[in-house]
Amino acid sequence: MSISIPPQTLTGRDPKLAARAVGLPHSPIRKLADDATAARKRGTKVYQLNIGQPDVPTPPQFFEALRSFSEPVLAYGHSKGHSDLLEAWSGYYARKGLDVLPSQIQITVGGSEALWFAFILICDPGDNVVVSEPFYTNYFSLAMAVGVQLHPVASDPSRGYPLPARRDLEAAIDDRTRGIMICSPNNPTGTVLTRDEIATVVQIAEERDLFILSDEVYREFCYEGTHTSIWQYPQAGNRAILLDSISKRFSACGARVGALVSRNATVMDGALRLGQARLCTATVEQIAAARLMDLGDDYYSALADEYKGRRDLMCERLGHMPGVRFEKPAGAFYLMATLPIDDADRFCRWMLTDFAYEQQTVMMAPGSGFYATPSRGREEVRIAYVLEKPELDKAMTTLAAGLEAYPGRRPA
Ligand SMILES: Cc1ncc(COP(=O)(O)O)c(C=O)c1O
Predict the structure, then answer these.
(1) 275: closest CA among 125, 142, 120?
(2) Which CATH number, 3.30.200.20, 3.10.300.10, 3.90.1150.10, 3.40.190.10, labels domain 23-56+298-405?
(3) 13, 83, 162, 227: which sits with the fewest CB atoms below 10 Å from its CB?
(4) Which of 138, 251, 333 maximizes ligand 1 atoms within 8 Å of its Cβ, making it the mutation to test the pocket?
């Protein structure tokens, strides 16, 4: 039987979309995708340094678990998450020295849904969350979609984007502020917050009665010093909500497995009710993710060594490009660089539409998309070092050639 749908059932004007939908920005990370496709069609090789898609193989245990799933029916799972995964994730935290019970974990569709749940749980429409900028661009869209505002506080590029000064964070808090958001290691800056910086956030949150949202999806990507988790501050107690994900640490972005973690029973109950509203997350991926949780230190140190090598190579190459300014990032796999150009949006597009060096070009994310303040980030780009060193090296040669040829180049 075939059902034919008339091509256009509506007459006249389309109904109006909600303002919050119309206002949603396109991801700066993905918005040049069509230009990249066109460049490839012209035969140009595009080094994709715009997106945090790790290229290291997903550990084989994940695929073995997928293949060995043998239930006759793929049924709905528990809204909180599969018990194997909750237990395994708690075990993973224990090995990291973090005492997290399975009951304190809500499994989500990636860290993205955990972020979304967190905004919904702590804010009513019109409330806001304070965050240092630049910040992970999707915070903006996820918050905006549920009527939450972000109050950005500028972080200083020349000092490697540390936590903004306490007085600046406090100045951004008003009577509709419900939380402070931190992300360490940071996307897009690669900054790893110090113990003292996190302690400052905890103190402010206590004094101003706020939640702390701590995005720790890059926990293992720390090349200088050690990672500090919000969970290590018992005094943050019921204020702390940790957002987590397997996407980056296990190179499993497509699995869509994340977690919201809190000691606050009311937060956990709210998260469960949100979980129930969307029934459950994908069962087989959760079972497979559970198999990754007991990977040993060898796995993580090999991962960190690989990315540290890439970071060092990239910093070495960028350091020789006239007029390019950056601070060596301590973690994650991103770097924000200030370039000697008129406008990063224009430059990143031009690299794809008008430029090629030996039939190659580089795709980067323009910096402005990581700022909520309209005037900021115009000369910055975010570069993700997610390619193997020989490829990254060629990408850097291509970027250097692009900077030389760009008509909107400023004198160094
Ligand atoms: C800082 C940060 N948080 C959260 C996420 C969400 O990741 P996912 O939904 O794949 O877990 C990302 C993805 O790039 C990220 O960079």
Answers:
(1) 120
(2) 3.90.1150.10
(3) 13
(4) 138
Q: Determine contact, residues 370/133, Cβ cutoff 8 Å.
A: yes
- List b or e across 39-74, with b for residues whose CB sees 16 or more CB atoms inside 10 angstroms: beeeebbbbbbbbbebeeebbebbeebeeeeeeeee
What is the Å distance from ligand 1's center to 65 Cα? 24
Q: How many angstroms separate the alpha carbon of residue 289 from the centre of ligand 1?
A: 16
Q: In this predicted model, what pLDDT tens digit does every residue of 56-81 receive, in sequence order? A: 999 999 999 999 999 999 999 999 99
Peptide bond into 234 cis (omega under 30): no
How many Cβ atoms from other residues are within 10 Å of residue 268's Cβ?
20
Nearest Cα residue to atom 1 of ligand 1: 187
The three-state secondary structure class of 244 is strand
Supply 261's token pair.
């973690």
Question: In CATH terms, is domain 60-290 a member of 3.40.640.10?
Answer: yes
pTM: 0.94
pLDDT in tens, 77-113: 999 999 999 999 999 999 999 999 999 999 999 999 9
Cα of 157 vs centre of ligand 1, distance in Å, is 22
Q: What's the 36 CA to ligand 1 centre distance in angstroms?
A: 23
pLDDT over 60 at 412, yes or no: yes
Mean pLDDT estimate for the chain: 94
- Mean per-residue pLDDT for 193-219? 97
The pocket around ligand 1, CB under 6 angstroms, is made up of 52, 110-112, 136, 183, 187, 215, 217, 245, 247, 253, 258
Q: How far is CA 253 from CA 110, 132, 256, 326, 401, in A?
A: 8, 25, 6, 28, 32
Domain regions of the chain by residue span:
23-56+298-405, 60-290
For 323-355, the pLDDT digits (tens) are 999 999 999 999 999 999 999 999 999 999 999
Strands of 380-384's sheet, edge to edge? Answer: 334-338, 380-384, 365-366
Under DSSP, the state recorded for 185 is S
Q: Is 60-290 in the same CATH topology as 23-56+298-405?
A: no
